[in-house]
Amino acid sequence: MAALPTSACGCLAAGPSLRRIRGGQDLSSPSLAVTAPPPSSFPTLKAVRGRGRWGWASACSTSFPRVGRDGWQRREGSASLLSFGAGPGELLGGNGGGADQAAGDPSQGLSLLLPFVVAATAVAALANPATFSWVSKEYYAPALGGIMLSIGIRLSIDDFALAFKRPLPLSVGYIAQYVLKPVLGLLIAKIFRAPSMFYAGFILTCCVAGAQLSSYASFLSKGDVALSILLTSSTTISSVLMTPLLTGLLIGSVVPVDGVAMSKSILQVVLVPVALGLVLNTYAKAVVNLIQPIMPFFAMACTSLCIGSPLAINRNQILSSHGLMLLFPILTFHLVAFVLGYWFAKFPFLRQDESVCRTISLCTGMQSSTLAGLLATQFLGSTHAVPAACSVVLMAIMGLCLASFWGNGSRIRDIALLI
Questions:
Q1: Fold of 114-126+135-409
Q2: What pLDDT does residue 411 have?
Q3: Of 19, 184, 202, 388, which sits most exposed with the smallest number of CB within 10 A?
Q4: Digit-coded pLDDT (tens) for 221-250
């Protein structure tokens, strides 16, 4: 008798040779990829029936301490906990690679292009300011609201319920986002003596929520994608309170900050669009299916406008000696934030998994600088939006380079071997 096919963990996998006959009908499940079993695997097969359909359930003698990353996939809410045993290309497209997935989901392909779009936007804005100087601050709020709406339509209520099941890693990431990072930004601004025309904007940039791009970076790095989605969503929603509070505490003595007005602005451009997207995704799925294919393109265009406008309007200040001096604090801030987020999760009393450490590192080093640019323009002046615009460019490039470094199988300890 031919041996039944098994999965990589020694469990039975569905395939052409697995058949369940009922009433003379062949109820085989669709064929899935089959890999050779380890010699010590002894699986058990059960036929189960649910909602009128037969399926196969397998039991494996091997126990896995971390469900969702060691050989199988599970889904909770809109966040899929993927098995990262293969490279990102294999996961996305099977034999076809990541290109097939990118073709099916525009957001994946556009996320891959985003760093290049950001860099091209920066070059165009500085080389030819007229390209973006027409974008006035009145356009910022609708543009950022469009970005947030594109996020909201991908969320579900189950995503937030999942947060209560993972309190420790979520708390570690939240503390890194809203405690460690603002303090780090303040220290770097003092050490580098950031120019006064950019000081308040730099501190504000350090006090905003995590960037949505960090979720894609977590995927590339073989990190915990579900945690990244939850962490970014929770920090974005709570930014209504946290960002004005931190900004008032850190720069209130330097630049007057209207915390109430800032909270209202964040409420309008962040919470309302995200809530609208969540409601649409829950109660109007047909509408979401209609607009979702174009939302990634719309979000990328809005991001380009939010980056290019402050760079174009403040071109002379950026290319001045004071502006060039701003690059060193921003580079240092992001570099140290990546390192600090990683090792904070590695502390002996926390001891998070490697995947969690990578995710927290990326979420700490990548923040929503577009939101910081909007708030700086509205409450501090357009000049203070320059640090946020520069941060978007450097953050995207540095974060995705680090994600690719990890995704290729490298580790932090390997850096010494590369030098």
A1: Na+/H+ antiporter like fold (1.20.1530)
A2: 61
A3: 19
A4: 888 877 887 888 888 888 888 998 998 889
